[in-house]
């Protein structure tokens, strides 16, 4: 549970939007909160904070779309 | 023979794919037969030019050897310079085919589709580097991916891992029925787009402009909008043929267009126009450039970095279309739009100057449409 919270607060930091924390099922790309640039920042931070290396083309926007889904994917890769 | 260029081509296609459809409807595996069809179709497409057929063969051998050697190398080591070398070697045939004609009489390097096939080779090198492709790829599967005939001349640009997944899926007769229906639907929409709407715009509007326009300015203005619409219907129509035929063969080639003329800004436009190309540049150029720069911490300013990424991406995309001035200008123009929009977006995030409602949405679409059309006007080369 703790890991998921950490991922969500990282996302809130990168999207510069705290409403994500209350709405972890929001599609970050549809809502315009995350774009290619933000995605790269996210991948760099994921590597630095969690030590998980996510290749750019592994980050499929159809699967890695909401904070909950991103946390789920990362938990799998850990 | 040009793919999808004549009634004869579709007629041959119908005969070649009849066994595919029968096998599919009966829920039998058909990829081996489809590989055989690909060989026949390639022979028919390239029969008119032995020189192009040889260039295609040499190109394919070059890419396959390069990919195989790099995968083998990557199993035990991961050197930077070897990776860069592999990427350069994979782009080399395309670069030669574009540059050589300017310096010499050598024109035998290029062939129909080389620009699109190069994307497939280069992506395999990059995904191997990323560790996403670990095992040796079966030769037949690799060749099939590179040479898959429905998309050979102008895409859509598929991704290997997606393509390979489609090959493994077992398709039941019922599921194939849906694929067949969707495929035929797409092919007929292709006819509507390319041979009815696109053809009409060209023949009844663009070619008749000298009777319609009253001044040179009007002529250029009408041409700008006419050409933009023509370009869309012609290319989207072609893409539907390519995707539709892929579906009949059990391969769900990615979409290329998603209503580009209702884009609400230029960023949105690049998520809707020639998507398989723009996503390729996004994933393999822009994002990698940003990633690399962020890790090396060479450029700290985020906006500057993002803008540099856009300039790199669109200049490359321009050069990829060709080395003529209009393509380079087109790339610069798109880069400029992206940078300008980026600044606007940042400004608006702070000051909330442009509200979000239905009215502003429509206005945004209209403004974007005109900027897009001006881009295609540059692209068309009519400016010079």
Low confidence ranges of chain B:
none
Number of domains of chain A: 1
Query: Beta-strand percentage of chain A?
Result: under 5%
Overall 3D form of chain B: globular
User: Ends of chain A: how far apart?
Assistant: 14 Å
* The CATH H-level homologous superfamily of chain A: ACP-like
Q: What's the helix-strand series of chain A?
A: HHHH
Structure commentary:
The complex is a heterodimer of chains A (78) and B (384). By secondary structure, chain A is an all-alpha fold. Chain A is built from 4 helices and no strands. Chain A has helices spanning 2-15, 19-22, 36-50, 67-77. The mean pLDDT of chain A is 90. Chain B is mostly helical. Chain B has 3 domains: 30-168, no CATH class; 190-257; 261-380, no CATH class. In chain B, 74% of the residues lie in helices and 0% in strands. Chain B is built from 15 helices and no strands. Chain B has helices spanning 7-25, 31-46, 50-74, 80-103, 114-129, 139-147, 160-168, 173-205, 209-212, 216-248, 266-270, 275-296, 302-321, 325-351, 358-380. In chain B, α1 (7-25) packs antiparallel against α2 (31-46), α4 runs antiparallel to α5 (114-129) and α12 (275-296) packs across α13. The longest helix of chain B has 33 residues, at 173-205.
